[in-house]
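Tokens for chain A. Residues wanted.
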């Protein structure tokens, strides 16, 4: 009903991370460029921070989609509520490794180590993306540190962690991070661009809002 009334082909404003409705504001474009820099320069670790609702999940999903089209191996994990064991199992599943979800953590860990080492020998970059890390168990932070200290050739592994600015995980990983990318809420100008662009993408040929 709303779409027909406003002459839209889709719903422009959604509370979900959907790359189809990505709005290229200057802030988002800069953040995305820095994420690609981390991957293309084969950096070991990047941190993506920003308040709730600023688009961190969307940026990671856009990056993940592009990685799937490349020659790299990539995994995207929503870490919210996960324990260390669950995170290991989710990683093995995302990378299609031959392990059972109920296998002991040590089995998952060894399988992941062998996988990363094999990719490194084959000069294949592996990129691990972790979202909502502020809601993961603290032991997951230690797991990320273990990944970053693996004996994997330089450039063989890139880990990107997204969390809210106040997350303890960000401060704990700061010493091993190559780059911290901050996403800020939209200002008035950015909000204007956001509304206009998404309305246009949704098929609107008019601007229903006053300035």
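Reply:
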């Amino acid at each position: 009903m709303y779409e027909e009334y406003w002459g839209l082909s889709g719903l422009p404003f959604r509370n979900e991370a959907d790359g189809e409705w990505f709005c290229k504001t200057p802030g988002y474009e800069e953040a995305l460029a820095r994420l690609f820099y981390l991957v293309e320069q084969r950096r070991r670790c990047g941190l993506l921070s920003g308040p709730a609702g600023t688009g961190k999940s969307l940026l990671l999903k856009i990056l993940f989609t592009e990685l799937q089209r490349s020659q790299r191996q990539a995994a995207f994990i929503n870490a919210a509520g996960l324990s260390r064991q669950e995170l290991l199992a989710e990683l093995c599943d995302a990378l299609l490794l031959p392990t059972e979800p109920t296998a002991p953590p040590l089995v998952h860990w060894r399988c992941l180590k062998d996988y990363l080492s094999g990719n490194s020998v084959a000069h294949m970059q592996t990129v691990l993306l972790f979202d909502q890390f502020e809601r993961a168990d603290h032991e997951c932070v230690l797991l990320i540190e273990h990944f970053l200290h693996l004996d994997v050739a330089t450039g063989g592994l890139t880990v990107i962690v997204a969390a809210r600015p106040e997350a303890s995980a960000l401060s704990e990983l700061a010493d091993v991070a190559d780059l911290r990318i901050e996403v800020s809420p939209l200002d008035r100008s950015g909000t204007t661009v956001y509304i206009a662009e998404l309305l246009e993408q949704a098929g609107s040929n008019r601007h229903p809002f006053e300035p």
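The two ends are 25 Å apart (CA to CA). The mean pLDDT is 87.
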